[in-house]
Amino acid sequence: MKFPGRRQHKHYFPVDNKNPLTNQINRSSRLLRNYIVGIDQVLVDIEAKIDQAFLDEFDLQRGMSQVISDEVTEKLYQRLKDENLIDYEFAGGTIGNTMHNYSVLADDRSVLLGVMSKNIHVGDYAYRFISNTSSRVDLNYLQPVDGPIGRCFTLIDDSGERTFGINAGLINRLHPDSIDESLIAQASALVISSYLMRTEPGDTMTEAAIKAVKCANAAGVPVVLTLGTKHLIEKEPEFWRQFVKEHVNILTMNEEEALAITDYSDPLQAADKCLDWVDMVICTAGAEGLYMAGYVDEQYKRETEYALLPGFIADFNQYEYSRPMLLKDCEQPLRIYTHIAPYMGGPDSIKNTNGAGDAALAAVLHDLSANVYHKRNVGKSSKHVQPALSYSSLSQMSKYANRASYEVLVQHSPRLSRGLPEREDSLEQAYWAI
């Protein structure tokens, strides 16, 4: 596993390099590996430029995410093909993106659960998904189905507004019997999205997801939930509040989804409210940047060296140098927060916003997984006197997440094509220090 981020560090990180004690490469000992698991509705993203008349023709509501029938999907796709309107076709799915990005950043294994077409032909949707997914993502646990995977059309009008048309295919047919409980129980984290709960009668995805979540809860594996769209959350906000309180450890969202679940428009206030239910919160807030919140035991708190920031909570970033912990592991829990503005002020030209949040989450997951990896291989390190959830501080993770999401914003694909550059030409080393 690669070290998470680009920075100086004093603790030995057990990658395949020289042992700091002997200055020799120790080939006799085998490193103990770990992995994360994600469940997703496996689909392909198709991006095209259209106008309002096109949306009206196919009865699509501008700016909304909506499910479309097989018949409409075929007509829509053919129309886009005939008029040469398609800009890009990528492997997609919010958790699929996250697993791919995690494996690119960590250069290590992740496992994706879902369905995959039994018969795959060169050039079809299933082929595009597999060929555009990192070889480090383990697809061996996908459940074969006799039919198509999902297709998500991202239709962009002249103003830049995005309208989503989703055809489910058989993506929601993941059966509970396909959930390997031992696989979940030994993972470093289980990652799901709210989309898994948007199913039709006869679908089994929700049952499968709930089985996996309960298995993770029983095994003490952190459950990570990403709130996929505000429209889904605002339909049943009380259900989602109760669900995250009972089953989720880490909640990730944008400011619109935060408003839907908490009724607070201020991202920091919303993140603080979510700490009533979960152990850690990630909230992206567009041009405002990224907020993170969590818990630390009073004895392990570390004060920031940055200027204290005003907000809904005065001096809220005072202890952002602390490493977050599960609430249950804190004897005297203290809430900690951090904020970071967009990397380099944000890109001059945003090529694509799809997947930026997935990249940020992947960076955080890399840090959490690195902590497990380090503990398994260097368990007696002073790093693990504190029963921390992550390898790095809240502040450091926000930098890493911020940097990873920037890479997606400046490209067309919603997935990282490579890891972060080994050398930052545009930044001083100080960005990654501490």
TrEMBL record:
Required co-factors: Mg(2+)
Enzyme Commission no: 2.7.1.73
tRNA processing keyword on record: no
Pathway(s) served: Purine metabolism; GMP biosynthesis via salvage pathway; Purine metabolism; IMP biosynthesis via salvage pathway; IMP from inosine: step 1/1
Superkingdom of origin organism: Bacteria
Binding site for ATP: 284-289, 357, 402
Catalytic activity: inosine + ATP = IMP + ADP + H(+); guanosine + ATP = GMP + ADP + H(+)
UniProt keyword terms in alphabetical order: ATP-binding, Kinase, Magnesium, Nucleotide-binding, Purine salvage, Transferase
A Pfam family annotated for this UniProt entry: PfkB
Keyword match Cell membrane: no
Single GO molecular function: guanosine kinase activity
Any GO BP annotation: purine ribonucleoside salvage
Gene3D superfamilies assigned: 3.40.1190.20
InterPro entries on file: Carb_kinase_PfkB-like, IngK, PfkB_dom, Ribokinase-like
Chain positions recorded as GMP binding sites: 93-97, 198
SUPFAM superfamilies, alphabetized: Ribokinase-like (SSF53613)
Domain Carbohydrate kinase PfkB: 133-296
Assigned protein family: Belongs to the carbohydrate kinase PfkB family.
Function: Catalyzes the phosphorylation of guanosine and inosine to GMP and IMP, respectively.
Name of the protein in its database record: Guanosine-inosine kinase
Originating organism: Thalassotalea algicola
